[in-house]
Design a protein that fits this description.
The chain has about 100 residues and is of the alpha+beta class. It contains four helices and four strands; from the N terminus they run E-H-E-E-H-H-H-E. It has one domain (about 1-45, about 55-95): Alpha-Beta Plaits, CATH 3.30.70. It has helices spanning about 15-30, 65-75, 75-80, 80-90; strands spanning about 1-10, 35-40, 55-65, 90-95. A four-stranded antiparallel beta sheet has the order 2-3-1-4.
Length: about 100
C-alpha cells in the first residue's frame, strides 16, 4: 500500500476549471485500486501554525501498489483533461509514503 498526500495550490479565479478536472479525475482513482481517503479544503482559521502558503485543497489517497498509482497517472481519460489541470493548478506538493 502506498499513500499520496497532495497540497494543491490553484491559480486565482480558476476554481471552476479545477473543479471540472477533479470531477473527472477523482472517480478514476478507484479504477486503479486507489481510494480517496480525505479531500480537505482548509479555511484560514483552521491553521495553528504555518511556514508555507495555505493550500487550496489537501488530498490523501491510497493505492494498493506504486504500479497502480503510475497507471492512474497514465490513464487516457485523465490525459484528455490535463489541460484543465494545467489551466487551474499553480503548483502541487506531492508526498509519497507508506504506513509504518
Amino acid at each position: 500500500m502506498i499513500y499520496i498526500t497532495q497540497l494543491i495550490y490553484i491559480k486565482d479565479g480558476q476554481e471552476e476549471a479545477f473543479n471540472q478536472f477533479e470531477s473527472i479525475a477523482i472517480p478514476l482513482i478507484s479504477k486503479y485500486n486507489g481510494r480517496l481517503l480525505l479531500r480537505i479544503r482548509p479555511a484560514e482559521d483552521t491553521f495553528i501554525e504555518t511556514q508555507i502558503e495555505r493550500p487550496y485543497e489537501i488530498h490523501f489517497v491510497e493505492f494498493d501498489t506504486e504500479h497502480d498509482f503510475q497507471d492512474f497517472m497514465k490513464d487516457e481519460e485523465r490525459k484528455k483533461i490535463l489541460h484543465l489541470k494545467e489551466q487551474s493548478i499553480k503548483t502541487v506538493l506531492l508526498v509519497k509514503g507508506e504506513k509504518l
